[in-house]
């Protein structure tokens, strides 16, 4: 079997996202053929090398790709616990992690997978994967202010807050619905940017991840990505589809 980067192997095995896998290596928690490895990059043969983390052998795992409609009030953490989205995925909870988190007050589409390379590419800004949000704000938005927010962004303690596009959809009562597309991974970037321009976010729903959309998936329910969806998503981030077990099944 071809040799691969150790961090990529660990990520693909569902142990952690690639950057976290690199930290495990640096910390000396990974051994290859019973010898500690701290060098990055290190290359391994997954079929013939014995690879362990904290003494536990890691073997290649079958790829799983789930799409969940996250309800408001739940947190996106792989650790589980009280009101975690992992409550919804049952038997998969111990081996998947969420890709592109939504905060507790937000809702909408979240992917969960053990494919570390795909997770890395979906969340890293340099791959330019779009995430689209439907956002209800108060007070009513005006086009000129939205154009300024889109063009200039705003500065915060962690750098510039910038999204790809902001579009006014309609006014409703004393507020407005917006469509916002972002490729950045900064925490709560949409809420923070809008606040800089005087808008309070009352509702935020992620409706698209790259090429993935689903208006029929009820809150709190999940399904496997369809083969066609997975192929399209892999193409967006420059990866090739392999024999993965994506299917049309939904959760019970």
Describe the structure.
- The chain has 252 residues and is α+β, with helices and mostly antiparallel strands.
- It has three domains: 4-57, Roll (Structural Genomics Hypothetical 15.5 Kd Protein In mrcA-pckA Intergenic Region, Chain A); 65-125 and 211-236, Alpha-Beta Plaits (2-Layer Sandwich); 130-209, Pseudouridine synthase, CATH 3.30.2350.
- The chain is built from six helices and 16 strands.
- The protein has helices at 6-12, 18-26, 116-123, 143-152, 189-196, 227-236, and strands at residues 4-5, 30-32, 35-36, 43-44, 51-53, 56-57, 65-70, 97-99, 107-113, 131-138, 154-156, 159-161, 165-172, 175-182, 200-209, 222-224.
- The strands form four sheets. Strands 7, 8, 9, 10, 13, 14, 15 and 16 form an eight-stranded mixed beta sheet that branches. A four-stranded antiparallel beta sheet has the order 3-2-5-6.
- A hairpin with a 2-residue loop joins strand 5 (51-53) and strand 6 (56-57).
- Helix 1 packs across helix 2.
- The chain is elongated, with a radius of gyration of 20 Å.
- The two termini are 38 Å apart.
């Amino acid at each position: 079997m071809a040799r691969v980067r150790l961090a990529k192997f660990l990520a693909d095995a569902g142990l952690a996202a690639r950057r976290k896998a690199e930290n495990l290596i640096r910390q000396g928690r990974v051994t290859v053929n019973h010898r500690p490895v701290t060098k990055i990059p290190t290359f391994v043969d997954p079929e013939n090398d014995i690879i362990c983390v904290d003494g536990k052998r890691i073997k290649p795992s079958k790829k799983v790709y789930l799409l969940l409609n996250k309800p408001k009030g739940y947190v996106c953490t792989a650790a589980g616990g009280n009101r975690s989205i992992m409550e919804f995925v049952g038997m998969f909870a111990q081996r998947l992690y969420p890709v592109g988190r939504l905060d507790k007050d937000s809702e909408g589409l979240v992917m969960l997978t053990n494919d570390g390379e795909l997770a890395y590419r979906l969340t890293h800004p340099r791959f330019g994967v779009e995430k689209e949000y439907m956002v209800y704000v108060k007070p009513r938005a005006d086009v000129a202010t939205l154009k300024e927010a889109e063009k200039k962004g705003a500065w915060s303690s962690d750098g510039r807050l910038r999204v790809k596009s902001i579009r006014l959809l309609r006014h409703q009562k004393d507020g407005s619905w917006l469509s916002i597309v972002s490729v950045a991974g900064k925490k709560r970037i949409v809420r923070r940017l809008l606040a800089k321009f005087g808008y309070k976010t009352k509702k935020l729903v992620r409706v698209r991840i790259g090429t993935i959309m689903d208006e029929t998936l009820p809150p709190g329910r999940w399904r496997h990505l369809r083969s066609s969806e997975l192929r399209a998503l892999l193409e967006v981030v420059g990866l090739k589809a392999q024999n993965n077990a994506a299917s049309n099944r939904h959760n019970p």
